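Example 3.2
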Amino acid sequence: MSTTKKIAGAALAAALGVTTLTACGGGDAKDKSGGATDAPKSKTVTLVSHDSFNVTDAVLKEFEQQSGYTVKVLKSGDAGAALNQEILTKGTPRGDVFFGVDNTLLSRALDNGIFTPYEAKGLGDVKPEYVLDKEHRVTPIDSGDICVNYDKAYFADKKIAPPQTLDDLVKPEYKNLLVTENAATSSPGLGFLLASVGKYGEEGWKDYWSKLKANGVEVVDGWEQAYNERFSGSAGGKKAKGDRPLVVSYASSPPVEVLYADPQPAEAPTGVATGTCFRQIEFAGLLKGAKNEEGGKALVDFLISKKFQEDMPLQMFVNPVTKDAALPELFTKHGVVVEKPENVAPQTIAKNREQWVKAWTSLVVK
């Protein structure tokens, strides 16, 4: 599953390529006697991630100063592409920690044995429902919900209640209103497919999509096109004269519409249909064969620290997984809490993902 284009803010904030982030104290490493060592690489820890990883400079620098490590971030495309590279380099990884494998790809990563088990300090503070690997080969870092978003102005003008559930989307009043991403090429597109599997089961999801197709669902390649071109409720969609008032995006998209508006509106222009969501959980793991295993452990500990967890929402527009991390006011005021998202076990996804996507493509696209 890709983690590219989670929402517009993540795309703007993320820098492409290799980024090296250093703190004031991140010069030559020193041995215990205070002299410079001959192995400065031991004080560099490399995080391999998808392109959407981001952290506030001050938060990262604080970790570097306290730990003595300099963090290097190697961004490697979307999550699927980044994971593929780590599988191909198994045992001789490009870095020390991998961040960004999610619950749709988790079994693949674990089955390929690319991680060294490590029980992170602070793991007890992580909500237990996010700890999917009891062997601690990966540590949960964040969660986010893939959901249908709606254009509030459209439905107010038409005097139609916006849809709230997957069942609603096949009703006549929502005909030709929804745009979604291709499940074969897009993270939210796959997540929306999995939401239907979670809701209707392996026997019922195809029938649901047949109804959705008959009700005029539009399929585009990716999130950028769906949200910023076809969706009438986003800032980009308005400029592009998008005419679809329903789009598959994220529960965190409405706060971002407020954050990047000038001036900022008192209320988000878009809403979330909370009965259409799939819960995405992202993990980090210590890579097997890491050159700096101790630094990697310290970095994993940092990723579930309160400081990083509270910084994350406005940097990557995802939710913290620790019990004591507070959400920023922008999220609490303009976001929604998805109480009952759809879930599918990682093992079930791993076993069926390819055939589900193939069947979906034949049914909906061809």
